Amino acid sequence: MTPFSARCRPRFPLLLTGWLLLLTTACGDGRTPLVMYSPHGRDLLTLVETTFEEANPEIDVRWLDMGSQEVYDRVRTEAANPQCDVWFGGPATILSRGAADGLLEAYRPPWADAIPPASQHPDDLYFALYRTPPILVYNEKTVAPEDAPKDWDDLLDPRWQGKILVRDPLASGTMRTIFGMILARSVAETGSTEQGFDWLRRLDAQTKEYVHSPALLHQKIVRQEGQVTLWELTDILFQRLRGASLGYTFPSSGSPVIDDSIGLVKGAKHPEEARRFIDWIGSHQAQSLAAEEAFRLPARLDMAEDELPAWAREALAQLVTAEVDWQLLESQGAEWMNTWDRTVRGQGKPEGADRP
Fold first, then answer.
1. Is residue 303 part of a domain?
2. What is the pLDDT of residue 149?
3. Which of 122, 173, 252, 283 has the CA that lies 20 to 30 A from 210?
């Protein structure tokens, strides 16, 4: 089965009336549907769907793949009549907003004690599953490794003007996290966000395009429509596995490592099945599977070295974790992004020019 069973798939746009009913209504085979909204992409979602269904043949896993912000928006919109059972993935900062809005149900899975206290909600509303580091990415055919950006500030070098592509941050939890790190760092250093917004204006001046989806972002970089971008490690490793000419570096000053989290949706139509899935997805078996087959760094602290593939051990050896005021991001992130959209997007000017 793909995002949801082909025999149930609607042939009209996502937002039309009746689409969600098709998603959550049984297809007649007697199985109980389990609906997940997730930004994790087809590779991981298909992997966990197939593996979980093999162990639980009475459950029909159905998923929708969308941006982290879009998951939050949809769960919030459906709060009066939830259509989703499991909120599977997204930065903890976004799930924290969902928790504050009353969109999540408390549930403490058996693996919770293996997760750092800072990576779980104090009332058991969500828990980190994976650690996702943002990185700097470049086209290996046009940029030599020694010339590639090594840190965030390198993106402001004039040589990259008009050569940077950026995933639209309004729909992307990854980009919101990177921009939030820049602004939180500004607050820590100067007491205000002014310096951070100035940095983002300078990046805007370097940016050729804000790209709607990760898939399009990868395609455009590979087609040399841009040379450099900012994204996250997992997607880039998948693209390299498929032969894409994408190189990457871990920022030397540190990456704002995302606690990619999971939670039970409040009012879920299938809570028993949802809890069973949450129990399984955080187990040693599922964490090892996700690391081996889908390039996910486990959030569990008790994973033995031999439970991790070589790429994960190498990534952990190179990764520098940036210090980030996550509480500040949670409280101010939405307002910061609205300000960025109004006052920064498309308004940056090249280095040396008068800024707005």
1. yes
2. 98
3. 252
Edge-to-edge order in the sheet of strand 246-249? 207-211, 164-167, 228-232, 134-139, 246-249
| Residue 253 near residue 151, CB atoms below 8 Å | yes
Reported as a single tens digit per residue, the pLDDT across 249-282 is: 999 999 999 999 999 999 999 999 999 999 999 9
Nearest-angstrom CA–CA distance, 203 and 259: 25
Dihedral sign of CA atoms 294, 170, 135, 236 in order: positive
Q: What is the pLDDT of residue 171?
A: 85
* Residue 56 belongs to domain spanning: 6-132+259-318
Report the distance separating Cα 104 and Cα 343, nearest Å. 33
| 167: β partners | 211
| Helix 271-281 / helix 284-294 crossing angle, nearest 10 deg | 70
CA separation for the pair 39, 280 (Å, rounded) = 19
Answer yes or no: are the C-beta atoms of 217 and 286 closer than 8 Å: no
229 pLDDT above the threshold of 80: yes
Does 355 reside within a domain?
A: no
Cβ contact 300:111 at 8 Å: yes
Rounded Cα distance, 26 and 273, in Å? 14
- What mean pLDDT is predicted for residues 305-325? 94
Residue 26 in contact with residue 67, Cβ under 8 Å?
A: no
Cα 23 to chain centroid, rounded: 23
Distance CA 299, CA 321 (A): 14
Please write down the long-range contacts of 194-199, taking CB distance under 8 Å and 24 or more positions apart: 197/339, 197/340, 197/343, 197/344, 198/355, 199/156
Q: pLDDT (tens digit, 9 = 90+) per residue, 55-88?
A: 999 999 999 999 899 999 999 999 999 999 999 9
Task: Please tell me the predicted confidence (pLDDT) of residue 349.
Answer: 64
Inside any domain, residue 356:
no
Pair (76, 176) in one structural domain? no
Q: Which pTM does this prediction carry? A: 0.83
